[in-house]
């Protein structure tokens, strides 16, 4: 990153901070700026099997954040170096569409540090869940494309990947659902959008195995008081369970649909 | 239901960007009306006993629009207005328009008595509207408010068809009003509405004043001085005359331009106004003039003594606050029965504040009352406080003038108290993380009648011959948690203010005098600082811990002294106090060897009449050995704590420093005592302490004390600071000769100590986190002033109607007078040697001449030359001038009795005549000022 770049980012941040000071994330009646209450998720829309070429695919919207996922594999590894002799290699690539953010038309390369970080978080989340040992020496590719951005990148990537993996029929131990929660002036907020994220709110992203109740990912970049960690985590877990319901319903609908299509009558 | 909200926004750089946000509409936004059966709310805000007025005889809720809040917030804040629905549209518009008004609105919303309800109409499914094509945002918002009002009125009718509550839209926009009326809503302008409120006619006045104000302002005073910072050296800049003052008011932060050196003023200054006033407009000096005076060491003698003089070129920050004052009778023209509004002149109590014009209908009612006026662009509101001269009114005036929040604690603050109230007890729950020190022989030593006991002590011999000494401080932070209302209130109050007859607590009484107070024979939570000291009072080690203690005795200084002296007493507690006393003496000696200075201030204590609480007698505060005992250990604790927190938080510790004095002031003093063959050395505090000790005149025991008082005045004020802002060598506390110092020992009455407690707790307890709690401590200094002024007030009441003659000492000689300190009462006053009146009356009177060589006043009388020098003993007559500006501003008057100077001194036999003259003189002087 060049010095000019850094400087630009700093000025952008400063303008944002000065804007934020006039903002109030939670109104006097406990409503957030977009009208949600503190413990409410944004509206979720999802649809599996949107791409015919990929082995499995899914499209998810969580509020104004939209993501497309495509899964290929298990298939033969392209590069010899990536072969793992006793299990499948998972490869995650995330890209941010150049039109995903209105204010910033800069093209991000796939090697952007932030995106790589998210990709590795997604990879680590799925490695223990996908039964990779069934597919030794092969590779599973997960491609994620953020079409529109409004906060909560990691969570939407994980949710979209889960749906696409299920669509691809890759054996997994369980669903993985992710959700973020943050803390602002003693209010614990679920599923932060971009404005809330920018207001210096500490944000914790949690990925949960909803059946067994195990956490597979906890990620936070800012500082949060230790007393607040538990309630924030619990709320995020509740959010994950709610997302699980939606995903599960979609999957079941889809299976029913497929079943109807494939039956001869 | 989901709506997408998209709008264009211009960034700071000028680019237009499109912002898309989600906007959810909901079904679960309730009306919050008490009797509503349709909504599922849990805690309704709006009551059924809403307002009734002449125009709208049914109970109704008020819905003001944005401009009503913007222009008439004073009306809205009036207690007569309640049950108000604030539309979210209005709430959000206000946030963008004006933060101060928005904050005032927030305070109203939080006030449960006002019953303000914010209705989220923008997120309500039925009241949300979309902006039409070609509709301006303002029109859209007006329509949104109307649609919400409409929803409310139909909703209220649904609840109760027969006897429904109405909704009234308040707006000053005629177009909006007609549109609303077309839609069948009731809408009024604020004026129409308020005029209908016949129970509270004074509201109309508030309305009028805030909407249209004319007036001008006179600046009657000519002299002010400013403490400022030129190139890191603190100096005083004199501002002379009205043009130079440039409409600055006491306390404003101003930019000052230094005048050329040739125009500087010579010291000592002649007193221009009737009295010498230490106008300390604290100001940052934006250096516009060159800082020449620091570079040129070879200035001539004459210039060296001159004072930097400058003029105000700009006001950086206004420091307006409400001022107390009274209405000048002359400016009121209307007769007693008229109700027309007129402009009247308000004379503020504080002379440093210019006269203020206010426009009121109630001039006749307000006459003879103390009123509170606030300047806001120009005057805004005025309230009657009570009759002048009444003691409680005067006390209140004093508090208001010093911005001391003396109101009762709000319900919100009291909510943060422990729920158990008086019955709160130390239980097992409190023990984890605390040392149990209940078995120790702990006692507290305080002044008689003290109920807020901050500190207690214990000592016990250790097997190795050393002593374990503990200082236990009330654990206030256990009760006062950060970010609670109580914490905010305490931070706002800053300190407990002790007035002569009253105490204004920083913490609610339950905490201050009960739960936190380390009373005897009850278990209390404490923060303990425990040292191992050698018999020579050297610190071996120190340990800090939260603890539980049970004090065995709360003693007064006198009782403790008696225990020490009474050799028959041999119990453990008494022995302990004796050991402490020995150790304290050693500590004291060590401190003096390091160069600590014993300073003095003429503090007096009043004996109040039991019934009326009027002062009947005054005495100087007395110091006992045991005072010093407690003080020594508190100093030791403060120093140890300062070291500890600084080691853990090098950048963010709250410490206290006392800068070295500026040489100029002390040099003056040193020159003055040359006459007695003494001199002051002030290179180090040690040298100063020694030279002060030397300056003793055997037949004048008060001389040394007087010298110390004057030295104290020449020193800088000790200040709080954050350790990250200064170099370590600047941390020094000059007066105490300590490298590092803080305030830890009085958390019940000082907020800074509360912060230090939190820091220390974080320092000894590594898991605990800490926030940026080191904020507004500037207020502290201001609050401390009030205590000193209260003494002055009571002095005035004490002398009311009395004529006293007493011994005094000259503490400062001016060109046209001198200042006398009367030790018996601890008061200071000025004696004028020349005034326009006296010379005119008796031209034969010998002139009193100021002699700049030895800084004295000389007068040639028939019996020889009489001179008045610094430190001279004189006899003065003290009276209180009642009749300055119609008795509204009381002032103490001092007249010289001895040495006798004709024309200047009064003698016993012409008392009466003299009295008349004083009145005359004072009255004339004042009136002249009003007239010009």
From TrEMBL, chain A:
Localization annotation: Cytoplasm; Nucleus, Nucleolus
Superkingdom of the organism of origin: Eukaryota
InterPro entries: ExoRNase_PH_dom1 (IPR001247), ExoRNase_PH_dom2 (IPR015847), ExoRNase_PH_dom2_sf (IPR036345), PNPase/RNase_PH_dom_sf (IPR027408), Ribosomal_Su5_D2-typ_SF (IPR020568), RNase_PH (IPR050080)
GO terms classed as biological process: nuclear mRNA surveillance; poly(A)-dependent snoRNA 3'-end processing; rRNA catabolic process; U4 snRNA 3'-end processing
Keyword vocabulary terms for this entry: Cytoplasm, Exosome, Signal
Major site of localization recorded for this protein: cytoplasm
GO terms for cellular component: cytoplasmic exosome (RNase complex); nuclear exosome (RNase complex); nucleolus
Single GO MF descriptor: RNA binding
Pfam families noted in UniProt: RNase_PH, RNase_PH_C
Domain Exoribonuclease phosphorolytic stretches: 40-171, 175-236
Signal sequence range: 1-22
Keyword Cytoplasm: yes
Gene3D superfamilies: GHMP Kinase, N-terminal domain (3.30.230.70)
Classification via PANTHER family: EXOSOME COMPLEX COMPONENT, EXOSOME COMPLEX COMPONENT RRP41
Oligomeric and partner information: Component of the RNA exosome complex. Specifically part of the catalytically inactive RNA exosome core complex (Exo-9) which may associate with the catalytic subunits RRP6 and DIS3 in cytoplasmic- and nuclear-specific RNA exosome complex forms. Exo-9 is formed by a hexameric base ring of RNase PH domain-containing subunits and a cap ring consisting of CSL4, RRP4 and RRP40.
Similarity field: Belongs to the RNase PH family.
Name used for this protein in its record: Ribosomal RNA-processing protein 41
Organism in which the protein naturally occurs: Dentiscutata erythropus
Automatic annotation (TrEMBL), chain B:
Record Pfam families: OB_Dis3, PIN_4, RNB, Rrp44_CSD1, Rrp44_S1
Residue ranges constituting the RNB domain according to the UniProt record: 434-766
Biological processes annotated in GO: CUT catabolic process; nuclear mRNA surveillance of mRNA 3'-end processing; rRNA catabolic process; rRNA processing
GO CC field: cytoplasmic exosome (RNase complex); nuclear exosome (RNase complex); nucleolus
Entry-linked CDD domains: PIN_Rrp44-like
Family under the similarity heading: Belongs to the RNR ribonuclease family.
UniProt feature, compositional bias: Basic and acidic residues: 284-295
Taxonomy of the source species: Eukaryota, Fungi, Fungi incertae sedis, Mucoromycota, Glomeromycotina
Residue span(s) of domain PIN: 60-178
Annotated region described as Disordered, given as residue ranges: 276-306
Cofactor requirement: Mg(2+)
Source species, domain of life: Eukaryota
Keyword Isomerase listed: no
InterPro entries to which the protein is assigned, alphabetical: Dis3_CSD2, NA-bd_OB-fold, PIN-like_dom_sf, PIN_dom, RNase_II/R, RNase_II/R_CS, RNR_Ribonuclease, Rrp44_CSD1
Gene Ontology MF: a single term: 3'-5'-RNA exonuclease activity
UniProt keywords, alphabetically: Cytoplasm, Endonuclease, Exonuclease, Exosome, Hydrolase, Nuclease, Nucleus, RNA-binding, rRNA processing
Residues in the signal sequence: none
Name assigned to this protein: Ribosomal RNA-processing protein 44
Compartments where located: Cytoplasm; Nucleus, Nucleolus
């Amino acid at each position: 990153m060049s010095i000019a770049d850094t400087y630009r980012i700093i000025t952008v941040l400063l303008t944002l901070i000065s804007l934020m000071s006039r903002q109030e994330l939670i109104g006097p009646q406990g409503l957030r700026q977009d009208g949600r209450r503190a413990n409410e998720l944004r509206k979720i829309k999802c649809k599996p099997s949107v791409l015919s070429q990929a082995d499995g695919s899914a499209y998810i919207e969580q509020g104004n954040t939209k993501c497309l996922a495509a899964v290929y594999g298990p298939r033969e590894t392209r590069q010899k170096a990536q072969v793992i002799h006793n299990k499948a290699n998972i490869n995650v690539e995330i890209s941010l569409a150049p039109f995903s953010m209105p204010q910033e038309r800069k093209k991000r390369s796939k090697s952007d540090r932030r995106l790589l970080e998210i990709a590795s978080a997604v990879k680590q989340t799925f490695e223990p869940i996908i039964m990779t040992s069934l597919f030794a020496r092969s590779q599973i590719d997960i491609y994620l494309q953020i079409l529109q951005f409004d906060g909560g990148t990691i969570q939407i990537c994980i949710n979209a990947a889960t749906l696409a993996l299920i669509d691809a029929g890759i054996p997994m131990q369980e669903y993985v659902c992710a959700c973020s929660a943050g803390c602002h002036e003693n209010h614990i907020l679920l599923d932060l959008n971009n404005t809330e994220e920018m207001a210096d709110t500490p944000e914790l992203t949690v990925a949960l195995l909803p059946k067994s109740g195990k956490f597979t990912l906890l990620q936070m970049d800012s500082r949060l008081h230790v007393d607040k960690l538990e309630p924030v985590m619990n709320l995020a877990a509740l959010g994950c369970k709610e997302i699980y319901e939606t995903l599960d319903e979609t999957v079941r609908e889809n299976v029913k649909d497929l079943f109807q299509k494939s039956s001869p009558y | 239901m989901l709506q997408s909200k998209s709008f264009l926004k211009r960034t700071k750089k000028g680019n237009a960007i499109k912002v898309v946000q989600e906007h959810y509409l909901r079904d679960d936004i309730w009306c919050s009306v008490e009797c509503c059966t349709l909504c599922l709310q849990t805690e309704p805000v709006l009551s059924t006993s809403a307002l009734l007025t002449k125009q709208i005889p049914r109970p109704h809720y008020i819905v003001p629009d944005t401009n009503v809040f913007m222009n008439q917030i004073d009306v809205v804040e009036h207690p007569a207005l309640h049950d108000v629905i604030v539309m979210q549209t209005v709430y959000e518009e206000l946030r963008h328009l004006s933060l101060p008004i928005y904050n005032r609105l927030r305070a109203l919303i939080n006030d449960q008595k006002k019953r303000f309800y914010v209705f989220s109409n923008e997120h309500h499914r039925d009241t949300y509207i979309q902006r039409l094509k070609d509709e301006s945002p303002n029109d859209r918002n007006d329509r949104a408010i109307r649609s919400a009002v409409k929803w409310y009125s139909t909703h209220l009718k649904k609840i109760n068809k027969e006897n429904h509550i109405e909704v009234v839209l308040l707006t000053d926009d005629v177009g909006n009003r007609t549109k609303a009326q077309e839609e069948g809503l009731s809408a009024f302008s604020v004026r129409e509405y308020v005029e209908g409120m016949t129970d509270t006619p004074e509201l109309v006045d508030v309305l009028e004043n805030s909407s249209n104000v004319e007036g001008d302002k006179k600046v009657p005073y000519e002299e002010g001085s400013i403490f400022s910072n030129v190139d890191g050296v603190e100096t005083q800049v004199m501002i002379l005359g009205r043009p130079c003052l440039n409409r600055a008011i006491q306390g404003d932060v101003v930019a000052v331009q230094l005048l050329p050196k040739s125009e500087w003023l010579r010291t000592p200054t002649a007193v221009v106004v009737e009295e010498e006033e230490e106008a300390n407009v604290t100001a940052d000096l934006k250096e516009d003039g060159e800082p020449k005076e620091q570079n040129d060491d070879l200035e001539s003698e004459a210039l060296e003594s001159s004072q930097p003089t400058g003029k105000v070129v700009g006001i950086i920050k206004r420091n307006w606050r409400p001022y107390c004052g009274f209405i000048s009778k002359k400016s009121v023209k209307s007769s007693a029965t008229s109700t027309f509004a007129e402009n009247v002149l308000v004379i503020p109590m504080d002379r440093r504040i210019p006269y203020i014009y206010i426009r009121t209908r109630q001039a006749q009612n307000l006459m003879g009352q103390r009123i509170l006026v606030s300047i806001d662009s120009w005057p805004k509101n005025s309230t009657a406080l009570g009759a002048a001269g009444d003691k409680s009114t005067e006390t209140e005036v004093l508090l208001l003038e010093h911005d001391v929040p003396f109101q009762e604690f709000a319900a919100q603050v009291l909510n943060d108290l422990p729920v158990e109230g008086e019955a709160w007890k130390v239980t097992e729950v409190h023990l984890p993380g605390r040392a149990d020190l209940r078995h120790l022989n702990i006692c507290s030593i305080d002044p008689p009648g003290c109920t807020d006991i901050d500190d207690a002590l214990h000592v016990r011999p250790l097997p190795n011959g050393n002593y374990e000494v503990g200082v236990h401080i009330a654990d206030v932070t256990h009760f006062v948690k950060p970010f609670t209302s109580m914490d905010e209130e305490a931070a706002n109050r800053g300190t407990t203010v002790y007035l002569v007859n009253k105490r204004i607590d920083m913490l609610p009484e339950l905490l201050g005098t009960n739960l936190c107070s380390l009373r005897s024979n009850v278990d209390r939570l404490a923060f303990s600082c425990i040292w191992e000291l050698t018999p020579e009072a050297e610190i071996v080690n120190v340990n800090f811990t939260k603890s539980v203690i049970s004090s065995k005795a709360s003693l007064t200084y006198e009782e403790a002294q008696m225990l020490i002296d009474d050799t028959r007493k041999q119990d453990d507690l008494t022995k302990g106090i004796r050991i402490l006393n020995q150790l304290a003496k050693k500590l004291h000696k060590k401190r003096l060897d390091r160069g600590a200075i014993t300073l003095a201030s003429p503090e007096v204590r009043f004996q109040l009449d039991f019934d009326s609480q009027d002062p009947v007698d005054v005495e100087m505060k007395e110091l006992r050995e045991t005072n010093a005992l407690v003080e020594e250990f508190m100093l030791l604790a403060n120093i140890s704590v300062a070291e500890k927190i600084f080691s853990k938080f090098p950048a963010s510790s709250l410490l206290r420093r006392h800068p070295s004095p500026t040489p100029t002031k002390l040099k003056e003093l040193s020159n003055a005592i040359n006459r007695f063959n003494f001199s002051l050395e002030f290179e180090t505090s040690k040298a100063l302490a020694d030279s002060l000790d030397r300056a003793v005149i055997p037949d004048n025991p008060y001389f040394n004390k007087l010298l110390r008082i004057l030295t104290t005045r020449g020193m800088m004020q000790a200040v709080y600071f954050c350790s990250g802002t200064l170099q370590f060598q600047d941390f020094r506390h000059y007066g105490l000769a300590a490298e590092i110092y803080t305030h830890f020992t009085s958390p019940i009455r000082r907020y800074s100590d509360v912060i230090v407690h939190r820091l220390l707790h974080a320092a000894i307890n590594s898991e605990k986190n800490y926030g940026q709690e080191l904020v507004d401590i500037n207020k502290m200094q201001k609050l401390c002033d009030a205590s000193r002024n209260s003494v002055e007030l009571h002095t005035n009441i004490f002398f009311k109607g009395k004529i006293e003659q007493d011994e005094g000492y000259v503490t400062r000689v001016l060109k046209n007078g001198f200042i006398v300190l009367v030790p018996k009462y601890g008061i200071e006053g000025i004696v004028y040697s020349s005034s326009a009146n006296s010379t005119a009356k008796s031209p034969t009177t010998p002139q009193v001449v100021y002699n700049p060589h030895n800084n004295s006043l000389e007068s040639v009388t028939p019996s020889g030359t009489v001179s008045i020098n610094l430190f001279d003993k004189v006899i003065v007559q003290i009276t209180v001038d009642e009749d300055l500006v119609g008795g509204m501003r009381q002032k103490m008057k001092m007249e010289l009795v001895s040495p006798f100077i004709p024309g200047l001194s009064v003698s016993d036999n012409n008392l009466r005549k003299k009295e008349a003259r004083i009145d005359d003189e004072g009255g004339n002087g004042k009136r002249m000022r009003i007239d010009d």
